Amino acid sequence: MQVLIAGAAGFLGSHLTDAILAEGHDVLGVDNLCTGSVENLKHLKAEPKFRFLEQDICVPFDPKRVDYVFSFASPASPADYMRLGIETLMVGSAGTKNLLDIAKKYGAKFLHASTSECYGDPEQHPQTEEYWGHVNPIGPRSVYDESKRFSEALVTAYHRYEKVDTRLVRIFNTYGPRLQMSDGRVISNFLAQALKGDDITIYGDGSQTRSFCYVSDEIDGIVRLSKSDEHSPVNIGNPTEWTILECAKAVLKVTGSKSKIIHQPLPQDDPTQRKPDISKAKRLLQWDPKIDLQTGLKLSLEYFKACVAATV
Ligand code: NAD
Ligand code: UDP
């Protein structure tokens, strides 16, 4: 297959590119590098089945014949999407539409990276795909949440009205090598702080929860979904729930760091709890995450040590 991966220079997009190439397909990676980096693709320099196009997907473009479109381009870290608020809204609307038009033109299959943020600050716990969410439409996170919710509506409309063969994955907090060290997400911040001996910054009292999925498990679930005929959203995430304080302690243990834990103000609308119900993915895709947080942090250490070494 000819596969287009939008957001290929990002954290998940670059791992997805590796997985799709490993299945023997040709990949055109498309990215405008606003939050991603060509460093994430440097190991593919001599790979004849991979091509890279620097392109903003909000601007219409023609990649020529494609058989599958993966829509992963969007700022994803809260610090990034709050810095790039309008760009985030545009990539989820105009950008997603351009990719759907490409899929429609070439009769390609389509998979869109959606998010647990569609559930907002959830009042249902754990979150099933049927839950409609609890989102502030004008708060600081709205540029991301509403962009992603609009994308889900658009993808579903292209399936319903235009018969495009679409899929929607709701991704829960994923981490691992190739996360940008300074993107402000909790695992990148904590690992970098611990390895540098800086204070570990917990926002609020650290009682808010997240459920962390290691990147290889996430990509395995996404690839399985890409081969299925399920058109409604599927949660892919690790259901083991951690408080942010427990997560900080796990990072200190894995790194052996003596960093001090300090508390900083909790950002507005920061979700208090998040945990996927993954029954649907288990049933439909025979998928189950394998890597727990301690193991995943260990697997991420070498990469973060190299990032820290490069900054000193
Ligand atoms: P990332 O920031 O590392 O990657 C996103 C990539 O998209 C970057 O390379 C960026 O340069 C590119 N991009 C952004 N706007 C673009 C545009 N207009 N045109 C072309 N390229 C553009 O983030 P990530 O963690 O790899 O996230 C990838 C996707 O998965 C995103 O859609 C995100 O919303 C979704 N997601 C990720 C997580 C997670 O935990 N990592 C959770 C939920 C959803
Ligand atoms: N967080 C934190 N310290 C940090 C970075 C994040 O306490 O240095 C918290 C943040 O307030 C949130 C959780 O960790 O409650 C996860 O944050 P992240 O930015 O990774 O993603 P989110 O799940 O909020 O989109």
UniProtKB/TrEMBL annotation:
<dbReference type="InterPro" id="IPR036291">
    <property type="entry name" value="NAD(P)-bd_dom_sf"/>
</dbReference>
<dbReference type="InterPro" id="IPR044516">
    <property type="entry name" value="UXS-like"/>
</dbReference>
<keyword id="KW-0520">NAD</keyword>
<keyword id="KW-0456">Lyase</keyword>
<feature type="domain" description="NAD-dependent epimerase/dehydratase">
    <location>
        <begin position="3"/>
        <end position="237"/>
    </location>
</feature>
<protein>
    <submittedName>
        <fullName>SDR family oxidoreductase</fullName>
    </submittedName>
</protein>
<dbReference type="InterPro" id="IPR001509">
    <property type="entry name" value="Epimerase_deHydtase"/>
</dbReference>
<dbReference type="GO" id="GO:0048040">
    <property type="term" value="F:UDP-glucuronate decarboxylase activity"/>
</dbReference>
<dbReference type="GO" id="GO:0005737">
    <property type="term" value="C:cytoplasm"/>
</dbReference>
<keyword id="KW-0325">Glycoprotein</keyword>
<keyword id="KW-0210">Decarboxylase</keyword>
<keyword id="KW-0735">Signal-anchor</keyword>
<dbReference type="Pfam" id="PF01370">
    <property type="entry name" value="Epimerase"/>
</dbReference>
<keyword id="KW-1133">Transmembrane helix</keyword>
<dbReference type="GO" id="GO:0070403">
    <property type="term" value="F:NAD+ binding"/>
</dbReference>
<keyword id="KW-0812">Transmembrane</keyword>
<keyword id="KW-0333">Golgi apparatus</keyword>
<keyword id="KW-0472">Membrane</keyword>
<dbReference type="GO" id="GO:0042732">
    <property type="term" value="P:D-xylose metabolic process"/>
</dbReference>
